[in-house]
Design goal:
Helix content: 10-25%
Number of helices: 6
Order of helices and strands: EEEEHEEHEHHHEEHEEEEEE
Strand content: 25-35%
Number of strands: 15
Shape: globular
């Protein structure tokens, strides 16, 4: 019987994306690499646990859940989380950033200085600029200031991010334009926290890092993995938790690696491209009447 592997997620570093497996193993991902696996017929998806600990009840979770956790483990995972706003006394310095994911999609967020650009890569930010650096609560107040004064969101759903990647502007200048304009408006706001040191607008572009330049546009996304289903295709790009796979004549399909967590995975049977899991096609903008 084939060895079963359990995915623990996609991690980004300065060397690129790495698919991690329970037990500490990792698979470095490079463009052109074949991603191939299957879910055994008799398998079921169980809770991925929290903070490095297995779920004590091995609770079955839904195939379309990107969290891959039961309610109790999800609660434990978010406890003491900066992202969940449950920590107010973290002494580390934080950066406020503006992240752009596609036309009309800019968000504000914060990340610990020690994490560098990892948070931006994990979110799939196509480009970004730092806005300022300071204590956690000053960074939080800046987030709120931008939401209230400029209507900038602090969250954009992954489904919206991946659907818009097929129509990104071609040049770095075009991709940076919205970030530059929003940065200008943000630093000009009154009530800017005194303890937050403003940063100049220096837009960093991730199109090459993600492999999005010149690759086939994604036509849809894997909706969920299912018992007996298989995925096999060539890795052409990756952004955030998403792998863009070229699968036969279908063009590229996006696989959110968070959907892999909780399943026992085995090598895909046979050779060549395979996609025998539910796929949700992206809605295309109508180009004209005729």
């Amino acid at each position: 019987m084939a060895q079963t592997w359990r995915c623990s997620g996609l991690r980004w570093s300065v060397d690129g994306p790495l698919l991690e497996w329970d037990g500490g193993r990792g698979s470095a991902l490079t463009w052109g690499k074949r991603i191939s696996f299957a879910v055994p017929e008799e398998d079921r998806r169980t809770c991925a646990g929290a903070r490095g600990h297995a779920c004590p009840g091995q609770v079955v979770v839904a195939g379309r859940s990107t969290g891959a956790r039961c309610e109790e483990c999800a609660r434990l995972d978010r406890a003491h989380s900066v992202a969940a706003d449950t920590i107010a006394d973290d002494p580390r310095p934080y950066r406020v950033y503006l992240a752009w994911f596609g036309p009309g999609m800019v968000k504000v967020g914060i990340t610990a200085v020690e994490r560098g650009t990892a948070r931006l890569l994990e979110q799939g930010a196509v480009c970004f600029s730092w806005l300022g650096t300071g204590p956690l609560m000053a960074a939080r107040r800046t987030e709120e200031l931008l939401r209230a004064a400029l209507g900038v969101p602090d969250r954009i759903p992954y489904a919206e991010k991946r659907a818009v990647r097929a129509r990104l502007p071609r040049t770095e200048g075009e991709r940076a334009a919205e970030v530059r304009e929003l940065h200008r408006r943000a630093v000009a706001l009154a009530r800017w926290p005194e303890s937050l040191r403003a940063a100049p607008c220096e837009v960093v572009d991730h199109v090459r890092v993600f492999g999005l330049g010149g690759t086939p546009a994604a036509r849809g996304e894997v909706a969920e993995l299912v018992p007996g289903g298989a995925v096999s295709g060539e890795l052409v790009a990756a952004a955030g938790p998403d792998l863009h796979l070229a699968v036969g004549g279908r063009g590229a399909v996006v696989l959110d690696t968070r959907l892999m967590r909780g399943w026992g995975l085995v090598p895909s049977p046979g050779e060549g491209d395979r996609l025998t899991v539910p796929v949700r096609e992206f809605v295309r903008e109508q180009e004209g009447l005729f």
